[in-house]
Amino acid sequence: MLADAGLLTPNGTFFAELIAFIVMILILGKYAYPRIIKAATERDAKIEAGLRAAQESEERLAKVQGQVEQTLEEARTQAREILNRAHQEATGDAAEVLAKSRVDAESLIVRARTEIEGERDRAIQDLRAEVANMVVSASERVLGSAIDAKTHQRLIDDALTKVGDNPGAKADKN
Fold it and tell me: How confident is the model at residue 1 (pLDDT cuts 50, 70, 90)?
């Protein structure tokens, strides 16, 4: 009797296995697969939100760098104008007025440079703080959980290092 039964010969076991398989597919289809698909969809949405946040951060960074460059150029122009005025005044007056004009021009240049440096430093600090906040926010969105203090500090330090290595930052030194 056992020799007559082949692999594809339908018998009681075959039908029991077929029914168990169909019941398993129905249970998985009703309970497990929707949850798996929902989790995958939520994960994709979180990743997409993180990527959007990173793109927005890059755009804001570029905008702030442009503003810093514009401020620096305006300060340079003002410094040139101050120097030109000081030179014109100096050539029209006697040696005493010439010496006084040079002192005034130098103090204006020092003050202008101090203001430029202060403005640049404030812009860089604001930029770093905003980038750090965006990195932490994007990281929390991507990871889907809160970040502990140690990881938070490491992410901030990494972001600030990257901002410091930016070619725009090298232009500020010139």
Answer: very low
Q: Quick count: other Cβ atoms within 10 Å of Cβ 131?
A: 20
Mean pLDDT of 77-101: 82
Query: What was the pLDDT predicted at 42?
Result: 96
| SS3 (DSSP) at 145 | coil
Contact 47, 141 (CB under 8 A): no
Q: Who's near 169: CB < 8 A, 6+ residues apart?
A: 124, 163
Q: How many CB atoms lie within 10 A of CB 18?
A: 11
Neighbours of 161 (CB within 10 A): 9
- Rounded to whole angstroms, how far apart are CA atoms 44 and 92? 72
Confidence of residue 62 (pLDDT cuts 50, 70, 90): very high
Question: CA dist 131 to 31, 89, 151, Å?
Answer: 42, 46, 16
What the block records as the tokens of 41 is: 């969809």
User: Does pLDDT of 27 surpass 70?
Assistant: yes
DSSP string across 7-75: TT---HHHHHHHHHHHHHHHHIIIIIHHHHHHHHHHHHHHHHHHHHHHHHHHHHHHHHHHHHHHHHHHH
